[in-house]
User: Fold this.
Amino acid sequence: MLYLNGDYLPAAEARISAFDRGCLFGDGIYEVVPVYSRHPFRLDEHLGRLETNLSAIQLPNPHTRDEWRERILGVIARQPFDDQSVYFHVTRGSANERDFPFPVDVPPTVLIFAAELKSPSPEIKAQGVRAISHADFRWLRCDLKSLNLLPTVLLREAAKRAGCAECVMFRDGFLTEGAASNVFVVKDGVIAVPPKNHLILPGITYDLIIELAQQHGLPLQVRTITEAEVRAADELWMTSSTKEVLALVELDGQPVGDGKVGPLAQRMDALYQDYKDTVMRAGGAC
Ligand code: PDD
Assistant:
């Protein structure tokens, strides 16, 4: 069951106009929230980013936070699995024509659906995953979680064909992020991550990792990182809501550090899991 514009219905019965601007132009914003034991994790932070993104593209938010929460929990309750990945998006609706400027008096489209959450298994966590690199050929508003995902589709397909889990991107000689994740670098016991600006998505997991590093006294720098530093790193991690903290042990066929999951990746993943367990024991973050 999914939610579409006010109704909960089976996916096969959901109908969206062929002229929906999400379909024609990618004119909309989306979010992906992990759900553990039916509790959405960091939902408020995701709803905050949605609000910021919608106002950045001048699309009025159709719902208050409470309304969003109610609808998202409504979808979660209708799934057969406990751990889920909830996707939701808002598009600028359908004006039944293809015209670029904003349509007038057209309601937005709101879609919410859930899939079973496929977090990396303990074996994958322990082994790490491989990545390729690629020039970052996306636009200059990568801070927006927009529905224009063609670059991501192409980059992730390239990674898949290379037998890799992620694509690490560089722009003008500097690290930006992964195709669908943020990327952290470790050298000589110091963690580093690029600053939040128009070139990367401000990840909810990115923020949590910085918070956890601060709380537990792990040295972490937020600064620009060169491609050469990435290639000489002791550890590389990808982070996202669904992948959590996942070590990249190979980049473009070369081992990262000694080619094994490093001690700081293990420590940060343990801190992340502890934090998650504490939040969930307290009844979830919703
Ligand atoms: N991707 N950077 C990009 C380009 C992303 O697409 C994502 C998330 C992240 C990590 O953000 P967060 O920690 O808030 O999940 C960084 C999601 C999961 C996706 O598109 O499926």
